């Protein structure tokens, strides 16, 4: 992995800053507190998110609600951009971010981002649920104070941490898990032994039930011939009964037919008598109607004359209305003229022009209007005379119409009587035909009744029928008893079969348990005598190899940093530094400040090399970050750091330091300044 660029927005003392990382050795230079370590923490956050050691509240700038880190880096042939966001609520939490791999952009949650990073870096999957990545912490970036804590801290904590870093702790976990499995197997086999204690008893019960079932099946087989015999006899007698029942049914149907025929014959006789009487009555009515019609002389009336007269009356009424309307118009004009005369005599001034009305003008208007009234009176008199004449003519025409309508009504009555007579004649023929049909039906019913009476005279063997019914009931009773006995035995067999099946299932289960006991004993023996010993051996061999390599690398880096033969270093069995000065073993805490820093840096570099050697598949070997590696160093020791950088042969080395001298032997320098609580990259 090689870092390319990082963008910080509202991260601690940074507001909005972009920092590019070239390949080679890089120095992050600046005064204490300028914001150098913030960049390293931002890289850590971008890769792995919030952890217990790196909280959101420690990263988000005070007074800001949102912040973000966007890291650009390369892994093998992949160009990666990852962005994580922070937001402030009741606490500072991570918001959703994104990851882009070779321009393939994907939104993701904090956990999904961490999963993607672990996959890219080829770190173990179990790190997904852990608060920090020890591999990254001890190969790429370790805060210097944390390394000193490991050196000076509890030996058990140090050994446990290194076991986890090297992945050797898995052998211890495997042994502990094996102990748990063995304990489980012992307990399980005790339970299994109790569960199969009654296995032979179950087998004995199963055989006993099988024998009982076989005996009962023999009894059922012996009952089958009886049932078959009863079935055959019942079928034979039922057939005879069916024949007799059919004959009895036919006789009953014939009796019903006789009764129905007699009723029909009675009804037909009554109907025939009614028809004869009805014919006689209709013939009397016909004779009376014929005499009445013969006596009447039908009046003569022409419907066309009536219609013509009605049209004349309608025309006359229209003319009268026209005359009356004209007469009313003249009366209205007369009233209007009289009103003008009355008004003009009273008028003094003209309402339009406001001039005074003269007497001459009044007389002239009065004369003109009276002339109009005279003409209107003459016309009214003429219209009145015309109306009276027309009304007299209309009255005469209406009287003629009335006489014609009365004659027309008499004709309609005469025609109705003639139609009624024809209807009566047709009714007589209809009833006569019905009477003839009824007579034929009556004759047919009499013949049918005679045949049915002769058929009913045949006697049926009812005694034989009753005897057969009794025999069938007896046979059914015997058959039922045998069937009950058979069903009882079958239920007993079902019960036994169920018990046998339950026992069979229980026996099979217990047989499996018995077989499993042997298998579990073999597993227990293998775990106890082979697996645990193998894990112990592997752990020791790997630890010896790790210890040897670690101690060699530790000595190498320390000797480069501290050029003196007076102090020699190594590692004890618990990976604690052994420091010998002038032939005497001394404690780490008695070293000078520069020597302590040198020991911590040597330990850190040795740890880096051992991890990269053991875990060869991880993809962070090309990057190392050194945080204040020269704290307390003399000028000579700082010069020796140049040798360390050359020996590392790492593609990208990032050093955080406020020592200006380091600028002389690194390839790139990034200077950071802080002003008014805001950090920024200094312009060159």
Poorly predicted ranges: none
Q: Supply the CATH superfamily name of the domain at 296-456.
A: Helix hairpin bin
Structural class: alpha/beta
Instruction: Return Rg in Å.
Output: 67 Å
Percent strand: 5-15%
What profile does the largest beta sheet have?
6 strands, antiparallel
Give the name of the CATH architecture of the domain at 296-456: Orthogonal Bundle
Order of SSEs:
EEEHHEEEEHHEHHHHHHHEEEHEHEEE
User: What fold name stands as the CATH topology of the domain at 296-456?
Assistant: Helix Hairpins
Number of strands: 15
**Coarse shape:** flat
Strands of the widest sheet, in order across it, are 2-1-4-5-6-7
Task: Describe this entry's structure for a reader.
The chain has 684 residues and is α/β, with parallel strands linked by helices. It has a domain at 296-456: Helix Hairpins (Orthogonal Bundle). It is 67% helix and 14% strand. The protein contains 13 helices and 15 strands. The strands form three sheets. A six-stranded antiparallel sheet has the order 2-1-4-5-6-7. The chain has a six-stranded mixed sheet with strand order 8-12-13-3-14-15. β1 (2-11) and β2 (14-20) form a beta hairpin. α8 packs across α10 and α8 (199-295) packs across α11 (462-561). It is flat and about 180 Å long.
